[in-house]
Amino acid sequence: MQYWLFKSEPDEYSIDDLKAEPNQTGRWDGIRNYQARNLIRDQIKEGDLVLFYHSSCKNVGVAGSAKVVSAPYPDPLQFDPESKYHDPKSHPDQPKWFSVDLKYDQHAKSFLSLSKIKSLPELAEMVLVKQGRLSIQPVTEKEWKFISQLIKIS
DNA sequence: GCCAACGTTGGC
DNA sequence: GCCAACGTTGGC
Q1: Which of chain B's bases lie under 7 Å from a protein CB?
Q2: What is the CATH number of the domain that holds A54?
C-alpha cells in the first residue's frame, strides 16, 4: 500500500466535484509535468490512497481522501485538439501523459491547512513543505497515519 | 551540453 | 498582483 498527495485547484476540480461524479469516481487528467507523470505512470497502483489537497485558493490544505481505482492509462486529453491539455507531439502508440481514476473516500472532518502542516515538526519532511510545486507527491506511511488522525478519517 | 530567457506553479 | 522556485525552450 502506497500513499500520495494530489493537488487540485478547487475552482477547477474540488473534492466535492469528485464526490458528485457518477459512482463518486473521476479521471485525474491534465498532468503535464514529468516528475508527476513518472509517479503516475510508474509507481501509482490501484488501491493506493490519496490525500486530496486544495491549492491556489482561499483555504489551501488537505480537504479529504480518495482511492486510486484504476491502473495508469493514457490521458485521453493529450489527443483531443479541443482540450487545453492537447499535446500535438504525443502519439497514441507512444503516449506521453497518463491518468488514473480516483474514487472519493472521505472529507476531512477537520480541514488541515498548509500553515498547520508547516507548523508541525512531524510533517516537516513532507514534499509539500520541502518542494512546493509538485502536483503529485509521495506521502510516507508515518505521515499518512499522522494526518489521518489530525483530520479524523479512518 | 550550457545557460539565458521565458513560462508556470502556487503561497501570500 | 507579486514573486520565489522551479521547469522548459532554444540558440550556440
Answers
A1: 8-12
A2: 3.10.590.10
